[in-house]
Please model this.
Amino acid sequence: MIRFNGISKSFGKTKIIDNLSFEVNEGEFIVLIGPSGCGKTTTLKMINKLIEPDGGSINIDGTNISDVDTVTLRRKIGYVIQQIGLFPNMTVEENICIVPKLLKWDKEKCLERTKELLELVSMPYEDYAKKYPTELSGGQQQRVGVLRALAAQPPIVLMDEPFGALDPLTRDALQDEVKTLQQKLNKTIIFVTHDMEEALKMADTIIFMDKGKILQKASPEEMLRNPAGDIIREFMGKHMTQNNNQDLKAEDFMNVNVVKTTENKQTLECLEIMKRKKVNSIIVTDKENTFKGIITIEDLKNHGKVGVPIGTMLNKEAQLIHKDMGAKEAFDMLIETKRDYLIVVADDDKVIGIINKTSMVKALADALWGDLECMNS
Ligand SMILES: Nc1ncnc2c1ncn2[C@@H]1O[C@H](COP(=O)(O)OP(=O)(O)OP(=O)(O)O)[C@@H](O)[C@H]1O
Ligand SMILES: [Mg+2]
Model:
């Protein structure tokens, strides 16, 4: 249906789109995702000739779009832009009916369509049709922007971060709405987002772009299982952490099986504990469980004298974190530090657990499996 053949585009001396080729099938929901500035909007705008490529060609239904009259082309393509872009001097109804009017629909049909569309997003005609964009909330403006693009039932719809400024509930409802419409009416949609969760939910196929090139084109399932490279993995991780694990704290995934001892214990006893528990360091506390230091197998070997309490040779360099520290911050800290674990403490330095690489894996797996379950339901 839509085919990019070796498209390139530079602004000034900078190459923004670099020999881009891909295909979109009829009825397919394609999501373009990637870091800010990677060329998503530029790619979209070339489809309706808002930007002309320097090289290569774009075909729609087998015809090179450079041979098609721009106005004719745009009537077939609905477009929701990144900053809403309603005409401020037109009412909601007039905004929605721009293209139907161009197509010379009669008044009755325009009215019916406007009512039907506003109904769809719970903005009753009687309350909203005669309002001007400035009288609407940001979210309502964004909905009208989406409706405007759908009004004339174009076979292709381009959507550039259409739900960016919406609250999560409205966003979720509109995502469902657009997805249902697309399936019911067999529309071809190219949808740009920053949000991997949105991409996973909406897409038949995700195209991950970076620096004007495609890094991976795959189904959500495939991208989730086999992300092609660190940037994509990071994108998924980042979004999953932000969206699913926002409130996850160090305490929620720490390991509570901590090998501890008290400062009055002696060297041989400590060696015995290390051997038994198969660890090479022990956390040392006082009788009230307040952190005092750690003792490592090296410390014992180098300085340990038989019959001396370990309190005299404690290693104070261990890294403590408070139980309320956010998951991401704790993980970043663990990766930065050269140590095997961070010690999680409650108020007054009471030791309650540790965080090591295994805790990280567990938290990440939770995020992944959680998300896969959502997708299957
Ligand atoms: N008209 C222009 N003139 C010069 N440079 C431009 C123009 N339009 C875009 N660019 C540059 O091209 C690059 C890609 O821009 P584009 O808008 O396609 O990115 P994007 O992937 O949509 O980013 P975002 O996610 O932030 O919307 C950016 O570096 C941008 O500064
Ligand atoms: Mg953009």
Q: What stands out?
A: The longest strand covers residues 14-24. Residues 40-41, 82, 160 surround magnesium ion (ligand 2) (CB under 6 Å).
